[in-house]
Amino acid sequence: MFTSTVSKAKIQNKNYSSSKVCKLGLIATAVMASFAPSLHAAEFLDGRAEVNFLALQNYQSIQAKDGAFRPADEEQSSGFGRLRVNLQLKFHITDNITADVDIAEEPNDFGNNGDRDFSFHQDFAGIEFDLLGMLDKARADSDLTLRVGNIGAAPFQFKGFQDGADNQGNALIGNGITDYATAENGAQLSYSKSYDSGLIRAYNVAGHVTTSSFGEAFQEDRGFNYRLQGTLEFEGGFKAGLNFFQANQGDQLRFDNGVASLDGLTTTNYRFGDGENYNFSASASSERDTHVGALPGLDQSIVQLNLAYQPNENTSFIFMLGQTTDDYSFADSAGNAVAGVTYFGTDGVADSNGTTFDSSQVIKGESKVEYFTLEASHYLIPKKFFIAARYSEAENTSELISQTDNTVERIQVAAGYWFNDSTLLKFEYVDQDEGVNSGGQIGAGFDGFTSEISVKF
Predict the structure, then answer these.
(1) What pLDDT digit, counting tens, does each position of 411-424 carry?
(2) I need a labelling partner for 165 at 20 to 30 A (CA). Which of 47, 55, 174, 402 fits?
(3) Has residue 8 been placed in a domain?
(4) Residue 6 maps to a domain
(5) What is the CA radius of gyration of the chain?
(6) 13-53, pLDDT tens digit by residue?
(7) pTM of the prediction?
(8) Is residue 7 in some structural domain?
């Protein structure tokens, strides 16, 4: 929602005030920034260093529905979450080389160790090279950028994204059940071009190769992850984008009687998507358990089409349609396919009357999720008060899973109010339903109200 449209070619990490544009490595991540408050980073050292500070406090009243995998989630108390804080720095090394780092105290990503880890971490960092500028061929309408370090990626475009305290680009509070957003280590090359007139006003192509880890992973047979993305922006407010992802991590598997363990293996970080600001008492705050968890994330591929239309500066519509597949499926300890990473079982074997298990085994057999998302937002008072809604549906069409009761649905309805250019208050109602064979990780779904107040300056 609130980041700028492509009015010029230098869109790939040139405006650090929208850090998740750089974190996800996307072109025009959202469509409504033309009327959102415009913030600029504080500058130091004669403009060679830029700083943004972000903080967020949330309050939620959310319950899991009857039949959840973890019964404690069905009776939660309302309350405040942990404060989230980000410090975003950007350094202009030369006219054509920049470096950035986002330092975060973010429970969504770093909330393990019994949720006692109140340390700041490197959440996202990299070095960018303006290749046309370095070759003395810089143009106002073109940009060719090489980024090395943390590479952010997601198959969605145009909609807002939320990551810890960095929430003001998202009209809602939740992200999405099939966002598949993450950051890993590698290199990305992006080319953008814009036009002053004509049917096509701008386009972007980008590709990256990453190690399937945010840290380091050098074990035997560990492969790489690849992404290819293209985006077109048309005259009249219409945009279209297409993304393709491919991971090659399956060679790490060692099968014994048709079953292989995931213990010690590197899987794709985008198999679930990034953490959200919905929290449940029976799991760590860094869990990705609000997303669809049907795919192991080994030889995973994603194809997604993204469409957006902004008829005026106060209104936007977004549609996303995608499919993700893997050559492997989650299984219980006896080698029986299960619908997702979390399932009921007895001694590790699937059993509807058993306790809860997280699968660490896979078997050969395609797992697949087909999904779509609709989102709309509108400012009732321009630049001040907006409403937004999102409907998402994901169907677990894996070949080894029963094709009944296999859908996850999420409805989100939200409102937001800007007190000033830096301060945003948001409220949201969320209702998620999870079928038995859906791959939903809560087990039955959840619903309730949540809110956030955030500052960014």
Answers:
(1) 999 999 999 999 99
(2) 47
(3) no
(4) no
(5) 21
(6) 334 333 444 455 443 344 444 445 666 677 777 889 999 99
(7) 0.89
(8) no
- The CATH number assigned to the domain holding 223 equals 2.40.160.10
Backbone angles phi, psi at 67, to 5 degrees: 100, 10
Give the position of tokens 């069905």.
74
In a domain, 63, yes or no: yes
Compute CA distances 88 → 18, 53, 93, 103, 210, whole Å: 10, 6, 16, 6, 23
Other CB atoms within 10 A of residue 8 CB:
16
Task: Check if the beta carbon of residue 70 is closer than 8 Å to that of residue 284.
Answer: no
